[in-house]
Amino acid sequence: MAKPNFNFIKRQKELEKQKKKEEKQQRKRDKSAETGEEVTDEPEEGETADGEPDA
């Protein structure tokens, strides 16, 4: 039986999280452009600068 490649699986999950984060930021930018508000790329409450939850 083949052994799972955990490094590959972990990297795929990281890429998926990154993609979701970028899509969320893009939606925020689009929404703010409609309303005329300015959006900053500061982390939300409970998150660090890299988007991971605080430990």
Radius of gyration: 16 Å
The structural class is mainly alpha
Taking the sheet with the most strands, its summary is: none
Q: Spans of 5+ residues with little confidence (pLDDT < 50)?
A: none
Q: What proportion of the residues form beta strands (DSSP E)?
A: under 5%
Question: Care to count the β-strands?
Answer: 0
Helical segment count: 1
Given the C-alpha coordinates, what overall shape results? elongated
Order of helices and strands: H
Through-space gap between termini:
37 Å
Q: Give the integer mean of the pLDDT values.
A: 83
**How helical, in percent, are the residues?**
40-55%
Structural write-up:
With 55 residues, this protein is mostly helical. The chain has one helix spanning 6-35. The termini are far apart. The mean pLDDT is 83.
Q: Tags for this entry?
A:
55 residues, mainly alpha, 55% helix
Structure in a nutshell:
This protein has 55 residues and is mostly helical. The chain has one helix spanning 6-35.
Q: What is the element layout, followed by pairings?
A:
Elements: H1 6-35
